[in-house]
Amino acid sequence: MSFKFSEENLKRIEEERKKYPTALAAVMPVIYIAQEQNGYLSSEAMEEIASVLGIDKVNVLSVVTFYTMYHTKPMGKYHIQVCTNVSCMLRGGYKIWDQVKAKFGLDHMQVSEDRNFSLEEVECMGACGYAPMLAVNEDYFENLTKEKVEEILDSLK
Amino acid sequence: MIERIVLPQIENYNTINVYLANGGFDSAKKALAKTPDEIIDEVKKSGLRGRGGAAFSCGLKWSFMPKTTTKPKYLCINGDESEPGSFKDRQIFEDNPFQLIEGTIIACYAIGAKVAYLYIRGEYHKWIKMMQAAVDTAYEKGLLGEKMKSTFGSEFSCDLFIHKGAGAYICGEESSLMNSIEGKRGYPRVKPPFPAQNGLWGNPTTINNVETITNIPAIIKNGWEWFSKIGAPKHPGTILFGISGHVNKPGVYERPSGILLTELINDVAGGVLGSKKIKCVIPGGSSMPPLRGDQLEGVKMDAESLRDVGSAIGTGGVMVMNEDTNLLDVLIRIAHFYHHESCGQCTPCREGTGWMEKTLKRIKQGSGTSKDLDLLCDVANHIEGNTICALGEAAAWPVKFMIQRFRDEFEEFVSQEVSLPVPNKVHSMRGTAIPLIDLRK
């Protein structure tokens, strides 16, 4: 599958490029843009990032594989992230994680067959005072209870 | 009255009009009329110390920036906030973004930087948008960029860009944060050279925490003497304490440094859930040595006092655990975190964090012995001090100190029988309990 940035995204890349003195430095925001457009970072997408910025493909790959928020395989339409780090764990984070796993019959980094849902057990998300928490794509849901989780998950269509 | 410096309780303070109506950006104006050295001196005398964990003098750090150089200088503001237990910076992005921007202007002027990068962790999508909106507003109002020259009537101008992280704990470490901004893997760099000599793209760079920078406008406004009188004399000012775990009212609270830990838990955070006893408190984010629940009386929350009781202030993220907590589970979770987040550059940390997690899990499965507890402390000791960055200590301290301070409890998880190795004539005698002479008979 070939990958080309949309006209609009090429303009965004231009803007990102202006923030930094080197092309390489713009690689992180540009990877985000590619992931947003393509859903995940395919080999073709990484090649396109490299060619747009005029850097080596290996530089893109090394960054993509270092950071956990870049995905090299497609995730679900709703990527559900549950924190189980200490503060969340103390307030029942693992119960929420078990509940979410049971609901979808999926485990860490697995995607449902219809590609609607994917799960991830994440490290601290910085919501420790409002634990337990989960995030659906970019949105945080905090101070969770079993019922609240059920409600949130049911609302995802 | 409780002093509020970083999070003033003013309604809609996060909107530009309310911020300006309350004297916003007056400090920047005042600062730009002074010389950079005067500002550095003021901040130095105020005693402001970094709020990111190391509690290093902010003014002193600024003074390390070379004065005579033709290279561009940079300011990095660390909002990576990835230490488990800390969630204070997001409160600043949400409630007081303009004071952070104003502090950035003053800091840039003091160190001579024309560009500042605000590094915010990638998971904070919502707060990045909020902060970006505030930065855009500041540009529109002529408070940043070229236009600020006419606004402030000064020759100085600076730019502020937000850099979004992508999920790596290690990027909260200053040199790895710089590598991340440069578009590389977040590997920490060997020091020296220090960032003030050789930072972003090899240029002089200063890295400050979001909370530290947000304190600056208040210091310029009210003077160093005012600031130095708040809280503990050696660690003055207020601290944003993020209290989480088994308390009734968890959240972020701004209180003067040196406040009693017991007051923080029992009064400010509404006491322990279910009025239970406290078993353990981690006072400054998960990498700091834990304190026993029966040793909290009289412990004050500032860098010196906590050092004296064998812990550290860290990011001010207080994690409270009640008497029902299984500390082995907690320690496994902490060990798993540091294993997951180790960048893999240094062998002691890359391998050691994995072995500590595996050994703890073995104990959890019921096949641990008392010797394993010693082994864990031994592994921790071999990581500590033998790595490029402080993640080594961050991974070693919780394991070492949790086992040392709660040895009684951990002994209950392990078998007391010491199984002697089977005498083996073929393999090396290393670690064999039986003396060599006996085997020869």
Description:
The complex is a heterodimer of chains A (157) and B (441). In chain A, 41% of the residues are buried. Chain A has 157 residues and is of the alpha+beta class. Chain A has seven helices and four strands; from the N terminus they run ααααβααβββα. Chain A has two domains: 7-64, Orthogonal Bundle (Arc Repressor Mutant, subunit A); 78-155, Glutaredoxin, CATH 3.40.30. The radius of gyration of chain A is 18 Å and the shape is elongated. By secondary structure, chain B is of the alpha/beta class. Helix content of chain B is 42%, strand content 11%. Chains A and B meet through α2, α4 and α5 of A and β3, β5, β9 and α14 of B.
Bulk shape of chain B: globular
* Count of domains of chain A: 2
- Report the portion of residues of chain B in β strands: 5-15%
Task: Tell me which CATH architecture of the largest domain in chain A applies here.
Answer: 3-Layer(aba) Sandwich
Query: What number is the mean pLDDT of chain B?
Result: 94
Cα-atom Rg of chain B, whole angstroms? 24 Å
Q: What's the tally of helices of chain A?
A: 7
State the end-to-end distance of chain B.
81 Å
The CATH homologous superfamily of the largest domain in chain A is termed Glutaredoxin
Q: How do the helices and strands follow one another from N- to C-terminus of chain A?
A: HHHHEHHEEEH
Could you tell me the mean pLDDT of chain A? 97
Number of helices of chain B: 19
Helical percentage of chain A: 40-55%
Question: Mind telling me the C-alpha Rg of chain A?
Answer: 18 Å
Approximate shape of chain A:
elongated
